[in-house]
From TrEMBL:
Pfam families the record matches: PspA_IM30
Compositionally biased spans, kind Basic and acidic residues: 258-267
InterPro entries per record: PspA_VIPP1 (IPR007157)
Domain of life: Bacteria
Entry similarity comment: Belongs to the PspA/Vipp/IM30 family.
Chain spans, region Disordered: 212-267
Coiled-coil annotated spans: 115-149
Assigned keywords, A-Z: Coiled coil
Organism: Chamaesiphon polymorphus CCALA 037
The protein, known as: Phage shock protein A
Length: 267
């Protein structure tokens, strides 16, 4: 294989690869429909031109037939008048126009068949263009959906390595650490309060026990008596007379009982 062939194949391969990568389905479909519409316009122009030629040929054919018929009438008139030479000349003219009309008739038949074929092709192209437009819209929708899905998958794939996602993960870790610290501080504060209340409770018990001991010591010791001189005898305490004591009011039963005692003492 020659160097020129290898370079040519390499260039064609690279160009084809670039074209394949540059092809956008939506743009290609739009351009294809535009090309088909341009073909449709050209075909319509061609059909219109063929129909115009057919009409012109038909007019020429009709004129040739009319001229042939006219010269036929003139030949008959000349023959009736006894002028055979003029009748012969008229028949020659009539033959020329008849041959022209025959040629035009063959051309007209060919044009009619061609126009019919072009009309059918025009209808087929219009149907294909209508179908292509519908298919284009459907393919464009599918292409857009595929692009959106591809972008979505790419975005989801980038979430794992995205710096923003990593920042979210770091901040979540920090929040968890702050929550753990807050919970630990709350537990320590609760334990400190419990210890303080326990100390207060213990101190109260000690104070209560100390107060009980003081009360016991005060209650157990008697009032000290005054020291008397040696040889002197302390006189007993004089009992309080009934009149010195305050009598509580007596119930009727006690009064009756007291009256019985006095009766017994008077016997």
């Amino acid at each position: 294989m020659g160097l020129f062939d290898r370079v040519s194949r390499l260039l064609r391969a690279n160009v084809n690869d670039m074209v394949s990568k540059a092809e956008d389905p939506e743009k290609i479909l739009e351009q294809a429909v535009m090309d088909m519409q341009e073909d449709l316009v050209q075909l319509r122009q061609a059909v219109a031109s063929s129909i115009a030629n057919q009409k012109r040929t038909e007019q020429q054919y009709n004129k040739a037939m009319a001229d042939a018929n006219s010269w036929q009438s003139k030949a008959q008139l000349a023959l009736q008048k006894g002028d055979e030479d003029l009748a012969r000349e008229a028949l020659v003219r009539k033959k020329n126009y008849s041959e022209t009309a025959s040629s035009l008739k063959a051309q007209l038949d060919g044009q009619a068949g061609m126009v019919d074929t072009m009309k059918k092709s025009l209808l087929q192209l219009e149907g294909k263009i209508s179908e292509a437009k519908t298919k284009k819209d459907m393919l464009k929708s599918r292409s857009q959906a595929a692009k959106a899905q591809e972008q979505l998958q790419g975005a989801v794939g980038r979430l794992g390595t995205n710096s923003a996602m990593a920042a979210f993960e770091r901040m979540e870790e920090k929040v968890l650490i702050q929550e753990a610290k807050s919970q630990a501080a709350a537990e320590l504060t609760g334990a400190d309060l419990e210890s303080k209340f326990a100390a207060l409770s213990a101190g109260s018990d000690v104070d209560d026990e100390l107060a009980a001991m003081k009360q016991q010591m005060l209650g157990g010791s008697a009032q000290p008596t005054a020291a008397l001189p040696q040889g002197s005898v302390s006189s007993p305490a004089t009992p309080a007379t009934p009149k010195d004591s305050v009598k509580a009011p007596m119930s009727p039963q006690d009064e009756e009982l007291e009256a019985l005692r006095k009766q017994i003492d008077g016997l």
